[in-house]
Amino acid sequence: MHVPDWAGPLGEAYRLALAHLTGLPDRPVDSGAGPADMRVALGGPVPEVPTPPAEVIAALAAAADPGLVATASGRFFGFVFGGATPAALAADWLTATWDQNAGLYATSPAAAAVEEVTGGWLLDLLGLPSHASVGFVTGAQMANFTALAAARHEVLRRAGWDVEARGLLGAPPIRVIAGADRHDTIDRALRFLGIGTDAIVAVPVDDQGRMRADALPAALAGGAGHAGHAGHAGPAIVCAQMGNVNSGAVDPLAPIVDLAHEAGAWVHVDGAFGLWAAVSPVLRPLLAGVERADSWATDAHKWLNVPYDSGLVFCAHPPAHRAAMGVRAVYLEHAGGDDRDPLDHNPEFSRRARGFAVYAALRSLGRSGIAALVERCCTLARRFADQLGAAGGVTVLNHVVLNQVLVRFDGPDARTRAVLDAVRREGTCFMSGTTWQGRAAMRISVTNWSTDEGDVDASVRTILKIADQLVSP
Ligand SMILES: Cc1ncc(COP(=O)(O)O)c(C=O)c1O
What we know:
The protein has 14 helices and eleven strands. By secondary structure, the protein is of the alpha/beta class. The strands form two sheets. The chain has a seven-stranded mixed β-sheet, sandwiched between helices. The chain has a four-stranded antiparallel β-sheet with strand order 8-9-11-10. β2, α8 (184-192) and β3 form a beta-alpha-beta unit. The longest helix has 36 residues, at 355-390. The chain starts with 6 loop residues before the first helix and ends with a helix.
């Protein structure tokens, strides 16, 4: 076996990684280069001859550096991005080093077992049923996809249709009942699944983007009699949301589950970030009823601060989950008995061993550490809202119930957008924009484990200074 110089490139990578991480507090958060600069820095002719690995790593880092956004920074508040805690990041390095194929027990007993153990811990921490099945996927998009595949299986099975064998042509139509302000990954998952977005029955939402439970009966009744039972919604899936991507609002789960189950519908919960609030005894009441849903999607790369990519899917009906995802091949060595092959729970075949980093995150933070992280982010989000809301000419548009804050600067939409652009260029912090109820808004998401009061206060000072300078665009 050829034994290369591991220490050269890995030593270089370690040195560069440490320089990046320790430099985060002083680095402008937004990237200093656009796509054109990056093409020049990284481009060139096809490499015709080998280059020593350590040299490749040094050159790659030098070329990429100006185009990196400091998403791991405690002053990155864009989209809903988490950073990476030290234990999770270190476990992720080992995951790449070990290079396990996490599809089967046979290809990595360690990777398969770590998913089983971590899955059990997650169900306990999130307060979900202990019998639920767990899948480790790339993100909430694929978690929504996987859960909705299980839902598709089950609602059609109950209607006497085997979708895995027969497909959807000629199948009883499925209705997907979802809040009008659902995340777009629900629609995208329905496209992937062949259900299609026309199947969506949009339920009106309130001023925070929460599904209106009082409007749900009418939506469910739209398909009444479909399967021949009065009061039965026919094959139907209700998609609820824990954490609106803009406002952070949480759907009223308890009445949603009651009404949906009464009508025979499956309830899926998209809790990409909001589901983590379940770990906090203070925030848990906001999610009342969540444990009675049929499936759940969340991310580890958001609030748990595991490096990209890492999503999680849970299903209260393990046979439906495995019917939708399971696979058998003559050349594979499938686990027998109670042993769980990971590939029966996610859409991939060969796959990175994502469980190691999630395991490390849970062990290093512990229940109390996760609760503290989530609560701290919510407190800091309120600090943003209080300080910005107290300044003249700034309006906080949402009720800050979790880690999301929406603000708008007096004047036309263009002024809010101009403030946002200028803040990003200044470099102290990074926020992203959105359109909330038809009006431009700055969107602040406090999701990083390392953010502290000083980061919020420095960011607020910058935002207000820039807003003062930009009286009109
Ligand atoms: C509610 C919700 N669902 C789904 C997603 C998609 O998550 P991912 O990008 O991890 O696939 C997001 C992303 O922010 C989200 O907020």
